[in-house]
Amino acid sequence: MSGSLKPGSVRSAAHLPGVAFLASAALALSGCGGGGSTAVQGGTAYGLANALGKLVTQGFSVSVTLSGSLPINGVATTVTGSGTLTYGAGASGTFNGAAALLQDQTLSGSVTAAGQTDPYTTSVTDYYATGNDAFLGEVNNTANGAEYDVAQSPIVYPATVVDGSSGALGTVSRYTDSTMSVALGTAQVSYSVKTDSTSSGSVIVELKELVYDTQNRLLETDLTDYALSTNDVLSLVSASVQTTNNGTLTATAQ
Predict the structure, then answer these.
(1) Which letter, b or e, does each residue of 205-238 get, where b requires 16 or more Cβ atoms within 10 Å of its Cβ?
(2) 2: Cβ–Cβ under 8 A, 6 or more apart, which residues?
(3) Mean pLDDT within 229-239
(4) Is the backbone of residue 168 left (phi > 0), alpha (psi -120 to 50) or beta?
(5) DSSP code at position 57
(6) Does residue 221 surpass a pLDDT of 50?
(7) Which whole-number Å values give the CA distances from 213 to 70, 192, 219, in the listed order?
């Protein structure tokens, strides 16, 4: 497609589960054991860490629709599309010189803008600590260039959460490659839990990532919403990426 609509037009930042596929994106799937959900004062406790650990180990695949607005030839243009988001099952590997569990995350499909349709494929690889699935970092190669991201401390999600809970999770340092000699900035990762209006047996866990450059200027906001059930199962609801220069893109599970 002419006009610069290509994978990477919306930045790939997958430090949190879900957005990985959008820009290649999303948020770290961290876990640290944990058991089933139990009733506690103030509401039901949901096993977030255990559920995220399952995603890292088992992976999943889901059909998504794409929607948003991107600048094409300097004009904000509506974008639609569809595809399949796949998180591969965790496999043994290494990251930053140490043993790790790796997970490939891929979005394959097509996008339509200004009357033209193009194939769309983007992917990243996330890395987790062996033993507790804490997020270690990510390797990302897109049309916008490579990125090598390292958690300043392994990111571990709470064992359990309740409706209304929230908190900061950690900071990711962004570099151009594994030498970590050229810094790109940082990303701040957090979570919040809210009521699931479609089901009384689950809550919505929203993972948020704020991406900054080396001057601490906000470049991008990534949001991924998962439905978390009482039996510690996460199901993708939607994921979105909004950048300061390249518009917005949202993937919604079908």
Answers:
(1) bbbbbebbeeeeeebbbbbbbbbbbbebbbebbb
(2) 116
(3) 91
(4) beta
(5) H
(6) yes
(7) 21, 24, 7
H or E stretch covering 225: strand 218-229
The encoded tokens of residue 46 equal 């949901």
Joined tokens for residue 148: 């090598």
Listed residue (62, 63, 64, 77) closest to 9, CA to CA: 77
> Which residue is it, tokens 């260039």?
145
Say what percent of the chain tops pLDDT 90.
52
Judge contact between 28 and 126, C-beta under 8 A: yes
- The pair of structure tokens assigned to 111 is 């996008």
Going by pLDDT thresholds of 50, 70 and 90, the confidence category of residue 119 is confident
Q: Facing residues of 105 across strands?
A: 87, 124
Residue 69 has pLDDT above 90, yes or no: no
Quickly state the pLDDT bin for 15 (edges 50, 70, 90): very low
| Statement: residue 29 has pLDDT above 80 | no
State the pLDDT at residue 142: 63
Longest dimension (CA), the chain: 57
DSSP annotation of 27: B
**8-state DSSP, 247:** -
